[in-house]
Amino acid sequence: MKYFVFRNFTIEPFFKGMNVEFSGYEDVSRFDETADRFIWFYLPSCKCDDETVANEIENYGRMLDWVSGQTDKMLLVFTMERIFKENFQIIDDRVDRAIRVYNDKIRQFSNRKAGVKLVDISDFYQGFSRSDLIDWKYYYISQMPLNPKLAGSFREWFQRQVETIEQKRKKCIVLDLDNTLWGGVLGEDGIEGIQLGEDYPGCCYRFFQEYLLELGRNGIILTVCSKNNEVDVLSAWNDHPEMVLRKEHFVAWRINWKNKADNIKEIATELNIGLDSIVFVDDNPTERELVKQLLPTVSVPDFPGNPYLFSPFSCFLTRNYFRAYRLTEEDTTKVKQYKDNVERVRSRGQFVDFESYLKSLEIELSIELMDEFNIVRMAQMTQKTNQFNLTTRRYTETDIREFVTNGGRVWGLRVKDRFGDNGLTGLMIVTINQGEAMIDSLLLSCRILGKNIEDIFVRYTLSLLKLEGIRTIHAMYIPTVKNGQVKDFYDKIGLRLVENKEGTCYYSGDLSELNLSLSKIYKLKNNER
């Protein structure tokens, strides 16, 4: 990934190790068109004349206006915060007002233009004192208003911001119970004896449960892994008057005396998610170390030593694992979707054959083209989907728009059945050149796998291409650590393997010769707009 950075001061140390080119100071006359993304990182000057500083900031806003209109590629725009303040008059807020206007402009841009993404610098600054943020020696020697000693911390923080913008966040939190969601040990203290409520430390545990409830509302899957008697826990969830999290808030749980690493693996299998999508929270350092050793891809943060530290711990969890740039409809309904999927799995055991099970689900598939309502979710899927993803190419909203602009097709797939609506969970991107089509990307969410939906999706979209007069279809499989299950997918639908080059497989097929018939088990709608 190559970045081009617009700046007004020396900031090179903060992007060390990245593929970055920098503009001159306050120079917006030159664009590096080979850059994949642009960064706008302007800092307020440290001058004593507030009128001059305010005018500079106003001019930076005009410059940003111009730059944002020159490219459709992603533009990451840093907000501005004041580091140096020489306040001769307490009521003089000219600089602060200029910064507010400047930051409001950025927020308006990010809401109005999909390619503009806000990066809130105050989120980084809050971890440091004002004296930490600036080293006057470097400011005067190197025109560097931000302390270069913070460069390493900045790079780690900025990488998390990029991951957030790319909608890369953890899917699931696995929670212990005793001394984690409440104080004390349920099996020893009883329901009346655990610490949860208005007094300290019970108020801290109640706060933590309220935080977790908000995580669930924001699309994070809440699960439990606890060494306890399940009947006691179910009773506590149901009967304790101060309990915020009840049974219905958890998608899955393992409440038993088994090895916690094994239990977490079972939860991942039940939800059909990767272990690297999980964060494990437990007050017991021995249990945390066990999971770290046996399940190294699970994230295991240190648990606070005192309940009054739950507030900063919650901020840590959000910042490092669960923050989203913008929630989609699918994000907000994800918990229900996973609950529905658990019910589907349980329902399957009632049928003697797979076809009868599929018929009982009453599956409805809807195909739709990219539009302004679904593009955010489509870009999100390219960033997050790993298992059923034939090429694992990561795209932004701007990238996806370019496929359509250049004559390609971008189809989304919505899936629902009698248990619930999974939302937009499939994507296919096709490029077209001189009457031939190439499947650039094909991916489906793990939530809908195992029902032959992927087969119907591809055969139907290929039939649409055939109706357009396309005769030849090309495709490829690029192997990754996680997508081995789709290695033979194109072979199964009848495409011919042309070449296998170091594991990357290239396919081709004549649409007039492929079997594009569809099973009558599924109800299929074409919602192309």
TrEMBL record:
Classification via Gene3D superfamilies: HAD superfamily/HAD-like, SGNH hydrolase
A GO term for molecular function: hydrolase activity, acting on ester bonds
Residue ranges occupied by any FCP1 homology domain in the UniProt entry: 171-293
Protein name: HAD-IIIC family phosphatase
Species this chain originates from: Butyricimonas virosa
